[in-house]
Amino acid sequence: MASNKHTYELTYIVNSVISDEQVKDMVSRVTAYVTENAGEIIEVDEWGARRLAFPIQKKRNGYYVNMYFKAAGELIPRLERAMEIDDNILRYLSLRMDPKMVRHYEATKTKRAAEAEAAEAETTEEA
Questions:
Q1: Predicted local distance difference test score (pLDDT) of residue 74
Q2: What range does the domain containing 9 cover?
Q3: Dihedral sign, Cα of residue 5, residue 10, residue 15, residue 16
């Protein structure tokens, strides 16, 4: 893959009817698929089980996962095809992040890290 790597955001919903172990395995498989195809994982954010806005395949709940990664554009159609044929993935959405989106993501990540650090410092002072 000689082409340039871009930053992507992938959000997908896993069938929450399957066991927690199977959900973790599914997240690991998607992450591994990206890394095995020369992708670079930035962050995997598991939002957990949530109620769906509307039923999908007669299911009312799903396990949401949001993943940020860098990869060549050729990976995306193959990744989407793999998700399409997996019965336990109810929905997915992949976005190529433009520079403005990347800056916003990095700023948000920095802000969250600073807030977590401040909260930890506050907890340490109280002890």
A1: 94
A2: 5-96
A3: positive
Whole-model pTM?
0.84
Same domain, 82 and 108: no
Q: How many CB atoms lie within 10 A of CB 15?
A: 19
State whether 22 and 41 are in the same domain.
yes
CATH number, position 39 = 3.30.70.60
pLDDT tens digits along 103-115: 999 999 899 888 8
Of 59, 58, 39, the C-alpha closest to 50 is 59
Edge-to-edge order in the sheet of strand 40-56? 40-56, 59-72, 5-15, 89-96
Does residue 2 carry a pLDDT above 70? no
